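INTERNAL AUDIT FORM
Audit reference: QA-55
Scope: verify that the stored structure record matches its stored sequence.
Auditor: D.O.
Record contents follow.
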Amino acid sequence: MKQFIVVGLGHFGYSVAETLARKNYDVLAVDSDVEKVQCIVSEVTHAVEADATDEDALKTLGVSNFDVGIVGIGEDIHANVLATLILKELGVKRVVVKANDRLHGKLLAKIGADRVVYPERDMGVRIANNLISSNVLDYIELAPDYSIIEIEANKKMSGKSLLDLKFRSRFGVTVIALKSGEKVNVSPQAEDSIKEGDILVVMGGNDSLDKLKEL
């Protein structure tokens, strides 16, 4: 099972650490603020007060044994970048880092971050898309022009199969999962019927998804 080290216990870091721990992963949470460490100590495998910009401190914690490092340090860009560098140099296999903006993200990518995330921007995009279309429940951007959405089946879709609705030929999108109550079908077939209120997980280009939202 993968082991995770989360550096920086602000809202983002705390949420990531807590979620991973709840899924029974081994999580080491690190922050220089003792109060933040005390708040999460009962939620994760280990929680330590340490300076993530101190290479010797991280060596002592044995970070090279961890599969994934998450850098959640936000406001202090210097500490954010330095912690990323140290985790990579100490041999953490995959490092995911929170960035404040695209320029910050480019810098992180250049110094070796395996994945750069933009929590505030991404949440803003998701909320905006949910507000635009009342039947869109969730939105995940895969690339600037490619996304996944969760859309609720309306009366026009009810009683029809995926074949009848012709999502691919009409809209150029692919239904990758179908949720009906507690049942989740992760490989829906063309003949599968849809009921009003079912949730369709759909992947495609943003222009194509916009057309689907109007269905």
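Auditor finding: record pair retrieved intact. The radius of gyration is 21 Å.
Action required: none
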